[in-house]
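Need a sequence for this fold. Nothing fancy.
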């Protein structure tokens, strides 16, 4: 059997992963971004440095090969029994940090005679390929050369009178240099990590602080404190300022709605209490006084019936508003004669003209058809006319008009009362609004009439509004589609 939840206790939220704070997310993203940038920089720097060094080494191989070839040719006439070419190649290799040698047309080593292990296997293979290219291309005056490379060496081969001069140079970067580069990259990464931590923590705190302040103020607002001001002491940016203004607007609207709701409860309670008191009083009078007098009993019973009708209308208005707002009572459109229907609704107010001297001035153009929910539009027309009756001036005149305007039908109701102040025009549609102006109420109602009008018209998607000037009354209007 499930455990009962104590009244007023909030339900437990659905279990799931704990939400990360914006502070942590901003810090993590900023730090990760910084590390990625450092890694990309380190890798790109290593690749670029290796490529640059390789290109420079190939150029140096060519330059060195050309210089060694020229120097060898200058000294070639001196080589004989008293001169050893081995010394030349060893000296060149040592001084220029290259591998220099003289090869025959088959790529076999001639000089230095005892340096067979000096030339790498890759250089030997590359040299044979380059010699073959030179042989296929033909040597012209000893000025022909070829340049190539292996995975680790740049190879230069030039034609001489004694054979083919080979000069090879390592292309890979010195390991000590690479270690130093990698060490510096690691140091930069550590520095950037620390710096990004500090900067991201500062920026995150700066961005999150106004949200945290607004959250605390929102909790106070939820607890009923309508004095909170969501604007901070200093500006955090246009977005947070706009959010603060929006929240302040929501606070004002909630405060206004709360105040009006309390007033409505008081008014509706009074509206309920009055007829209930009357019903009870007249029922007691029938029981104790007029039970045996048919005339008095009939009179008292009629009062009870009238007050019961008033209660019924009040409850019906509240239920209709709730149903229409929630969508339970859907709109059922049909095509009907709005002119005849308006005249039919106005007949309900005929008793006011006969008994209380109200004047209904009508200007209704005939044959105007529209597409809407007939029953709900009847509520709209009745409530607008009833509102005009309740607030019209001493002349008790109400003007109702229905006419064609281009592709629409304009329905308007105008009274001659005190009008509504400009600053209150927006509030008159509110279900909790009640004008402070004193007025008689010959038409019974709950005070929810205009709110019902607004809800019905918005459900239909019809345009509506009110024009008012203090001392000259109000004019409510609705625009219906013309068929």
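Here you go.
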């Amino acid at each position: 059997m499930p455990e009962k939840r104590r009244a007023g206790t909030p339900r437990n939220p659905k279990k799931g992963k704990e939400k990360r704070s914006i502070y942590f997310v901003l810090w993590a993203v900023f730090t990760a971004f910084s590390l990625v940038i450092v890694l990309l920089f380190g890798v790109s720097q290593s690749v670029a440095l290796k490529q640059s060094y390789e290109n420079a080494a190939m150029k140096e191989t060519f330059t060195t090969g050309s210089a060694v070839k020229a120097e060898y040719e200058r000294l070639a006439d001196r080589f004989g029994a008293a001169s050893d070419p081995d010394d030349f190649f060893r000296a060149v290799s040592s001084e220029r940090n290259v591998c220099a040698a003289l090869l025959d047309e088959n790529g076999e080593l001639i000089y230095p005679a005892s340096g067979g292990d000096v030339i790498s296997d890759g250089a030997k293979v590359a040299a044979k390929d380059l010699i073959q290219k030179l042989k296929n291309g033909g040597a012209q005056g000893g000025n022909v050369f070829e340049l190539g490379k292996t995975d680790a060496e740049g190879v230069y081969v030039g034609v001489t009178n004694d054979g083919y001069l080979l000069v090879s140079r390592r292309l890979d970067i010195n390991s000590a240099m690479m270690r130093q580069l990698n060490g510096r990259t690691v140091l930069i990464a550590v520095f950037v990590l620390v710096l990004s931590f500090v900067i991201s923590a500062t920026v995150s705190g700066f961005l999150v602080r106004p949200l945290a302040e607004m959250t605390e103020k929102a909790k106070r607002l939820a607890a009923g404190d309508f004095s909170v001001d969501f604007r901070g002491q200093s500006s955090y940016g246009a977005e947070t300022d706009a959010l603060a203004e929006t929240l302040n607007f929501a606070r004002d609207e909630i405060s206004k709605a709360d105040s009006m709701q309390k007033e409505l409860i008081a008014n509706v309670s009074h509206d309920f209490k009055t007829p209930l008191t009357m019903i009870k009083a007249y029922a007691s009078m029938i029981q104790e006084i007029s039970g045996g007098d048919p005339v008095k009993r009939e009179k008292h019973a009629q009062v009870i019936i009238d007050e019961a009708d008033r209660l019924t209308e009040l409850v019906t208005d509240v239920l209709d508003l709730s149903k229409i707002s929630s969508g339970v009572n859907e709109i059922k459109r049909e095509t009907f004669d709005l002119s005849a229907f308006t005249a039919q609704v106005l007949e309900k107010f005929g008793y006011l003209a006969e008994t209380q001297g109200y004047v209904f001035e009508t200007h209704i153009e005939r044959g105007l058809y529209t597409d809407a929910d007939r029953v709900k539009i009847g509520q709209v027309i009745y409530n607008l006319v009833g509102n005009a009756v309740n607030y019209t001036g001493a002349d008790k005149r109400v003007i109702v008009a229905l006419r064609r305007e281009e592709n629409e039908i304009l329905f308007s109701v105008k009274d001659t009362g005190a009008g509504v102040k400009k600053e209150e025009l927006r509030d008159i549609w509110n279900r909790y609004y009640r004008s402070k102006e004193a007025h008689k109420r010959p038409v019974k109602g709950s005070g929810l009439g205009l709110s019902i009008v607004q809800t019905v018209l918005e459900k239909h998607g019809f345009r509506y509004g009110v024009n008012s000037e203090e001392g000259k009354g109000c004019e409510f209007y609705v625009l219906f589609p013309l068929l």
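For context: The longest strand covers residues 397-405.
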